[in-house]
Amino acid sequence: MAERWEYLTIDGGTMRALLCTPDGQGPFPAIVVIQHAAGVDKFIQDITRRLAAAGYVAIAPDHYHREDFNSTDDNFTRMRRLLDNNI
Known about the structure:
Blueprint: E1 2-10, E2 13-21, E3 30-32, H1 42-53, E4 57-61, H2 75-80
Parallel strand pairs: 3-4
Antiparallel strand pairs: 1-2, 2-4
């Protein structure tokens, strides 16, 4: 299994995403792993790796990419800031 952080440009900023791919030749099915309140933490990273080990390309985008990576705010405060006020 291969694993790496991808850095995507989103609205002029950078969003990191953990990308894990199975060994061997594809094509492989793909799954987007959505973070929980804690973000792309060790639990989400482990799920992404396990999916790749099971034969899926798996990517876990960090939806907190607009937040300070070292934020000390609690998870639910950070999660509330993800709301789209344009709806």
